[in-house]
Amino acid sequence: MQPTHLLNVIIHVGCGIAAMAVGFIILAGAKGTARHRQLGRRFAWLTLGLCASAAAGNVLFRFIPVFAILTVLVLYQFAGGWRAVYTRERGPALVDAAMTACAATFAFALAPIVMLAARADGSTAVVYSSLGALAMVIGYDTCRWWFPAHWHATLWRYEHVYKTVASLFGMLSAASGNLIRVGQPWSQLLPSALGIAIIGWMFWRLWRGQRSAYRAMR
């Protein structure tokens, strides 16, 4: 392994371990606090380092289809979740449109390449599910431009939860694919399924809290 490749791997693994550790601390802790925001900023920088090193690894050293699409998915989801906190009730802005256009461009460019490679190495289940998740988020982000303006005041919290938690479990799925060789592809799909279950539980808590607040105002 070349020294530059080894350095990139070290950066990638270090950022990944640290990002997941910080992410799970955020997930387990109180939301909306100063500590939550501080840890969120650390998670952001670590996620950027993780995705930058993953992109460099795929472009410069070794192209791995499933990790190429996971890199786009994790970065786009996280960036969207981060943006939701800043835009809130204002809804999407031109920056968000540019991000969606970039993600769609990468998805269309990568899809035929990764699907062909996935058929060759047997990773179709993971690649197709990742492409489907990316298409769903891009589709939602496109449709929200036509949402009634007052929807955004409620939806931004759900959007923040889904995109940030999904990016965290996307990292875990990628790590599982690298470290656990038995039971593939299910050992790599399981973290994603767990993430969806946690997102569903958090959505229910958000909905219950908003319903209680609405009833208290009546």
TrEMBL record:
<feature type="transmembrane region" description="Helical">
    <location>
        <begin position="161"/>
        <end position="180"/>
    </location>
</feature>
<feature type="transmembrane region" description="Helical">
    <location>
        <begin position="6"/>
        <end position="30"/>
    </location>
</feature>
<feature type="transmembrane region" description="Helical">
    <location>
        <begin position="93"/>
        <end position="116"/>
    </location>
</feature>
<protein>
    <recommendedName>
        <fullName>DUF2306 domain-containing protein</fullName>
    </recommendedName>
</protein>
<feature type="transmembrane region" description="Helical">
    <location>
        <begin position="42"/>
        <end position="61"/>
    </location>
</feature>
<keyword id="KW-0472">Membrane</keyword>
<keyword id="KW-0812">Transmembrane</keyword>
<feature type="transmembrane region" description="Helical">
    <location>
        <begin position="67"/>
        <end position="86"/>
    </location>
</feature>
<feature type="transmembrane region" description="Helical">
    <location>
        <begin position="122"/>
        <end position="140"/>
    </location>
</feature>
<keyword id="KW-1133">Transmembrane helix</keyword>
<feature type="transmembrane region" description="Helical">
    <location>
        <begin position="186"/>
        <end position="207"/>
    </location>
</feature>
